Amino acid sequence: MYRFQVEGISCNKCATTIRDAIQQFDEKANVDVHIEEQAVDVDSALPGHVIERAIVDAGYPVKEMIH
Question: For the whole model, what pTM was predicted?
Fold first, then answer.
């Protein structure tokens, strides 16, 4: 399980964009986006740096990754 502190999450559309970006690499990933906390929890077999890159490529800067 990874937790990412992510900038710019402001609505459900943002959450869907992030979830879809991660699930392009792992369709079975469990992704929980917390809008108010600006955080994304991901349970996936993917390495953390791959998940982080997916979030960044979707347009959301990652401030911190916690494993």
Answer: 0.94
